[in-house]
Amino acid sequence: MQKRKEFTLKTDILIIGNGSSGMWAAKRAKELAPELEVTIVDKGPTDWGGLMSMSEGDFDAVTPGKSLDEWMQDLVYYWDGLCDQKTMKTLFGLSYDRMCDYQNMGVSYLKDKNGNLRGVAQRGLEHICLYPTDMKGDGGESMAKALTKALEKAGIKRFGRIMIVQLMKNKNGQIEGAAGFDTISGDFYKIETKVVLIAAGRGGWKASYGNNTASGEWVDMALKAGAKVRNFEFVEVWNVPKLYAWEGQTILLPLGARYVNAAGEPFMSKYSPKYGANTDPHYITMAMAYETREGRGPIYFDLSQMTEESIKMVEPNAGWQLLNHQKLSDMGMNFFTSKTEWMPQLLTDFGGLDTDLYGQTTVSGLFAAGRSRSLDNGVYMGGFDLSTTSTTGYLAGEGMVRYIREKYQPTAAIAEERWNTAAQEIYQPLQQNGIHPKEVLRKIQELVFPYQVCILKTEESLQDALEKLTRLQQELLSRMTASDPHYLMKLYEVRGIFRVTELYLRASLLRRESRAGHFREDYPQRDDEQYLGWILLSEKDDHMEHEFRRVPIEEYEYEIKEYYSDQFCFPVLEQTVD
Predict the structure, then answer these.
(1) What's the CA gap between 205 and 442, in Å, rounded?
(2) Concatenated DSSP letters for 9-28?
(3) Tell me: the pLDDT tens digits for 450-473?
(4) Is residue 329 left, alpha or beta, with left meaning phi > 0 and alpha meaning psi from -120 to 50?
(5) What is the rounded CA–CA span in Å between residue 382 and residue 303?
(6) Crossing angle of helices 85-104 and 384-406, rounded to 10°
(7) Residue 1 has pLDDT above 60, yes or no
(8) What average pLDDT score do residues 440-452 get?
(9) Beta carbons within 10 angstroms of residue 259's beta carbon
(10) 3-class SS at 214?
């Protein structure tokens, strides 16, 4: 490899992540403060748009004539009470404005014959709807292109192929810099800034090509800077086709799609007579695990109950989903008329940084937005991410501008010696001999993918996985090396995945109950007295600490009257752990 160069970037606002939330934050900050320099860096290509570009484009919004209060009551019920009501009411209150912004930027949404937006109700809830774009297959890509054009017009600087590895604090404990490297050339980047926004998505396990960038290296970086995280016990276990990925079951299920077992039985009606298959994938994957364990697998996705009109509405006409539709056709299968085998797949963790309404973390000068900022607790509505990444990004843009104007305290520049130390630490694993990152990734996947670790959890299975992870850390993690800058990026991704896995296992052990997307087979009941609140984790002196923050029911507007999870009944173990 040629000798690496060193570059210094100076900016007022540094945004890590060029996806939906990062771009919305940059856009809003520049609108409020045109004089500020705003810079986005991303480990991927400059214009790729993050995972937004892989999405359908479905968007949750409280449209005119709909009741925000009714949406909130649905959400409190759906999330089993574990809802930051003040934050979510603000975000949903901003949702339609952001949808209108997209329309003004040229994004088109599906309408009925009268010209009204066509919504699809979610998860059997009465009021929450998503609104699809009219281009099935590349709606998210059209949104990413629209935002990119808006940022270029605003003069916002964007850099691709740069991975940020360390955050730098000044003598007052404020974040004032970040160090990273070019993932192709290996060049070192020193970035001097007044504030940093982490908008890099969730941490995950690289289970499929649609989520192969969501590794969570920012989690380790933020913890080392002193930030707190929450909701790591909730993970995204999706039901996916065994052959080719498919986006959009959140639309298909309300329109009549269902899951059946090997005997052709629509088994979800057994686990929930009220909702059947028209529910969150996490309840379905729990049922899939039980059906398979009892010998009634494999599981199939059955669309035979859908009308021709509904199929026409969701049939892809562009993008990667159309390619997969064609691949099935080449095999003699049609997604909408053939019975296709599906399976659970662990994708990402719902955990994220603990912040205030405007994205400020517990570390001065460090903000978070989008899926790096934890909102939901293991159950999901279609269109939720594109809606909340836009609104949390929008608010973070405002928060960062306010922080710079009111709280930022200039200090002496970060000493060159500290930059040199950061560079030495970043490039230390760059060696020819050692363990390849992919080997360690496989070991982590092997211990967390089994259903008894990620779906039907127990004390025994979680403790066993944590012990294996500890051995893996001692025996393999420190011996990982990278032969070039590309694999150095992969190495830091695997370190991030390790940390996400540790947080997941520890938080899952701490929550000895079942709620929303977290199911403990040995503690199948919800325990409001002990666990109606958030588990927060932080790092101190190289070990993890935890605290519990109760949901402040007395301060909230919406009473918790009933719970969505009460509409489901899963088998109970004969004995529970004391």
Answers:
(1) 9
(2) EE-SEEEE--SHHHHHHHHH
(3) 999 999 999 999 999 999 999 999
(4) alpha
(5) 18
(6) 100
(7) no
(8) 97
(9) 24
(10) coil
CA distance 321 to 250: 15
User: What CA–CA distance (Å, rounded) separates 283 from 123?
Assistant: 11
CA distance 83 to 80: 8
How far is C-alpha 521 from the chain's CA centre? 25
pLDDT at 432: 81
Tokens of 355: 């912040």
d(CA 560, CA 80): 8
DSSP structure class, residue 469: H
Instruction: Quote the CA–CA distance of 236 and 34 in Å, as a whole number.
Output: 38
Give this prediction's pTM.
0.95
Query: What are the backbone dihedrals phi and psi of residue 66, each rounded to the nearest 5 degrees, phi first?
Result: -95, 155
d(CA 400, CA 445): 37
Q: Which pLDDT band holds residue 578 (cuts at 50, 70, 90)? A: very low
Q: Which residue has the tokens 């912004």?
A: 101
- Nearest to 154, CA basis, from 163, 146, 164: 146
Tell me the H-state helices in 239-345. 249-252, 268-271, 281-293, 308-314, 319-330
Residue 573 has pLDDT above 80, yes or no: no
